[in-house]
């Protein structure tokens, strides 16, 4: 591995649920792309009424994701910090406290803190068709390179601790955007003419690209609005029912620009972009 490279922690809890959505609770921060993918899939599969949710405050300090009151209250357990859910599950847990978290209300334990697993669990609960057998191989292939080059790539660019690590991540990000742009020349959605898991997994990264990754993570090769096919695709998905309400732009900007002191010590939040392209359609 390149020296100075950012390495994301592996998710620690990757269980399967005992029972249906009513038995569970979802902890998220709308600022977080991995949370947003879970919130999107919950909404599009019609699980919002049966699977309740708590939102963490977008500002995160060294104590981790917090419930600070008002909209950011944990009505279920009254936790002040998400760390309490991790400690309840494993008192010796000493890893990072990440969102999203799927919580079992009866056993009072975390079932999963891996968004990729959580969206599959939701699809199973709802009898959804986001991961149809005939497309699984293709979806798995798409998910893999899109995650490693683009979705995690922007973080590797942003948190690189050496020029070399940054350069490598930057190249991956823009190679993958070009690859997607070409892919979407022929296809409406990633796996053909129907929306699948691969699309809902990718969308949160595209929605954040110009507002955050381009500036804060120095992924400034191009903006999303400069890729016509990607912009058409993002606009289409953004305008599907329930999606716009999962996109909390103000929280997203506040989270990234005020939480990462090493990248933005003055915590000034950029005013732009004035036009994201996909919101105005
Ligand atoms: N593999 C996890 C990654 C989740 C993740 O990295 N979440 C970030 C927020 S965007 C987080 O909670 N980070 C907290 C930390 O690193 O302290 C998933 O996809 O569910």
Record keyword descriptors for this entry:
single chain; 281 residues; alpha+beta; Glutaredoxin; Glutathione S-transferase Yfyf (Class Pi), Chain A, domain 2; 9 helices; globular; binds glutathione; Glutathione binding-like protein; glutathione transferase activity; Glutathione-S-Trfase_C_sf
Overall geometry: globular
Which oligomeric form is depicted?
Answer: single chain
Low-confidence stretches: none
What's the N-to-C terminus distance? 42 Å
Helicity range: 40-55%
CATH topology (level 3) name of the largest domain = Glutathione S-transferase Yfyf (Class Pi), Chain A, domain 2
Number of domains: 2
Looking at the overall shape, the CATH architecture of the largest domain is: Up-down Bundle
Strand arrangement, largest sheet? 2-1-3-4
Task: Compute the average pLDDT.
Answer: 96
Number of strands: 4
CATH top-level class of the largest domain: Mainly Alpha
* List of distinct ligands in this structure: glutathione
Q: Helix/strand/pairing class, anyone?
A: alpha+beta
Q: What about the largest sheet?
A: 4 strands, mixed
- Secondary-structure element order, as H and E? EHEHEEHHHHHHH
Q: Radius of gyration from the CA trace?
A: 18 Å
């Amino acid at each position: 591995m390149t020296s100075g490279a950012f390495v994301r922690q592996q998710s620690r809890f990757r269980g399967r649920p005992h029972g249906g959505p009513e038995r569970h609770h979802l902890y998220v921060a709308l600022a977080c792309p991995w949370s947003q993918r879970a919130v999107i899939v919950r909404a599009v599969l019609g699980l919002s009424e049966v699977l309740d949710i708590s939102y963490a405050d977008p500002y995160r300090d060294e104590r981790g994701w917090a419930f600070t009151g008002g909209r950011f209250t944990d009505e279920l357990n009254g936790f002040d910090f998400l760390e309490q859910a991790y400690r309840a599950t494993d008192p010796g847990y000493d890893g990072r406290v990440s969102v999203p978290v799927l919580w079992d209300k009866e056993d009072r334990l975390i079932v999963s803190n891996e968004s990729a697993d959580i969206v599959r669990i939701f699809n199973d609960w709802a009898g959804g068709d986001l991961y149809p057998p005939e497309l699984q191989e293709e979806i798995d292939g798409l998910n893999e390179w899109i995650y490693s080059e683009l979705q995690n790539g922007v973080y590797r660019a942003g948190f690189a601790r050496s020029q070399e690590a940054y350069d490598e991540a930057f190249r991956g990000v823009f190679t993958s955007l070009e690859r997607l742009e070409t892919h979407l020349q022929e296809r409406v959605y990633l796996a053909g003419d129907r929306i699948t898991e691969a699309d809902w997994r990718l969308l949160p990264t595209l929605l954040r690209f110009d507002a955050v990754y381009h500036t804060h993570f120095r992924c400034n090769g191009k903006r999303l609005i400069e890729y016509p096919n990607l912009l058409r695709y993002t606009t289409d998905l953004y305008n599907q029912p329930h999606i716009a309400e999962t996109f909390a732009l103000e929280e997203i900007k506040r989270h990234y620009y005020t939480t990462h002191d090493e990248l933005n010590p003055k915590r000034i939040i950029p005013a732009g972009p004035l036009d994201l392209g996909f919101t105005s359609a």
